[in-house]
Amino acid sequence: MFFHFETDFVDSLRCIPMVVRYRLDSCGVKLKLNHWHQFSMTQRQYLIDCPFDSPEDITAYAEKLQAWVTAYTGTPAKTLEIPENPAWFNTEEIPAQVTVEFIAKTGCESFPRLAWAQLTPLQRFALIKLSQPGHENRNFLPALQEFGILAKND
Known about the structure:
globular
């Protein structure tokens, strides 16, 4: 469930893994790292492994998460607008920030459209997150290699 580029922190779960970030954006909860650090390892693992396939699963996830944050901090986490048509589900249109970061990091002229379409929604989500302005972006190239878009020696 974790990406290889996350291996430096997944054993300790000191950072929020991409699969949880995906779930947070999908259920509209803005979880801060300090919230994550207050959760037990069992709670963190639950947020990674629990069912997240149906609208009911997603609602239950958000409710449990908000209950935990409230229990630790006294107030719920902020909420985010849930996109109606998230970019990570769009196999046809590559977000501009992904293309710009791809060109900057690889020197190639454009992101390969077929490669984008063949990624899973979680992989597309990861590339979108890793290409955000102001993000460190150090895992963008490793993610491209892991997802088979670039060869390891590119």
